[in-house]
Amino acid sequence: MTHDDVRYEIRGSAAWITLNRPERRNALSVELLDGVAAGLRDAEGDRAVRSVVFAGAGPMFCAGADLKRVLGELGGAGVTDFLRRAAALFDQVARHPQPVIAAVHGGVIAGGLELVLACDLVLATRTATFADGHARYGLFPAAGGATRLPRRIGANRAKQLLFTAESWSSDRMYEAGLVNEVVDDDRLDAAVQELTERIGRLSPLGLARIKDVVETGLDRPLDDALGYELRACEEYATSRDFAEGLQAFADRREPEFVGE
């Protein structure tokens, strides 16, 4: 995949999708959204890819939507259409079968935060900051912010961020439950690479099933979710990866998964 606003590269078993508009603080444009969507499709179609990483070029992860450009190109009425496109992309991120990791540095604001909320795991530098920011200008977090944020950090904390537009440190977001790991600024890429290598040794089919069960179960009553979990396991138990895992355990060796 080639796209000016997005860099796509393979590092080991991970596909890195880098937002590449540093001069605009990686603000989200229509072209950038299209580039990210294309990168996700490429990653899903590549059997060698076991996880996806989102990163940002330059000093900041993502400053949210490029409203100046959206207004200039689409006009006021086009903002709603842009938000629909962004929401659809973030849904694509959330439903992506491979584990998706956000590698956050600098600032992540508004639409940038909504992208992070759609990811499965979040690693952040010690100096990274998180903010919603919509309320500051009377805007609305319509691409998942008002819905996913309380599911990730609880309603009380989410309301504080949404109502005040204040900025939280990565340590505070770790305590709130959004950030999985806080690392030194010069260790972010290495820490993410170590995580993708661990994921890359596991069954991609099994992880996809687990991700689906976790996400689906959150929106179902407990009994329904448990039934869905059991059915997913029964289906996975017919796969080559499941058999390989059992055989490797019996042989006391490392399994070699193929994703089938």
TrEMBL record:
<dbReference type="InterPro" id="IPR001753">
    <property type="entry name" value="Enoyl-CoA_hydra/iso"/>
</dbReference>
<dbReference type="InterPro" id="IPR029045">
    <property type="entry name" value="ClpP/crotonase-like_dom_sf"/>
</dbReference>
<dbReference type="InterPro" id="IPR051683">
    <property type="entry name" value="Enoyl-CoA_Hydratase/Isomerase"/>
</dbReference>
<dbReference type="InterPro" id="IPR018376">
    <property type="entry name" value="Enoyl-CoA_hyd/isom_CS"/>
</dbReference>
<comment type="similarity">
    <text>Belongs to the enoyl-CoA hydratase/isomerase family.</text>
</comment>
<dbReference type="Pfam" id="PF00378">
    <property type="entry name" value="ECH_1"/>
</dbReference>
<protein>
    <submittedName>
        <fullName>Enoyl-CoA hydratase/carnithine racemase</fullName>
    </submittedName>
</protein>
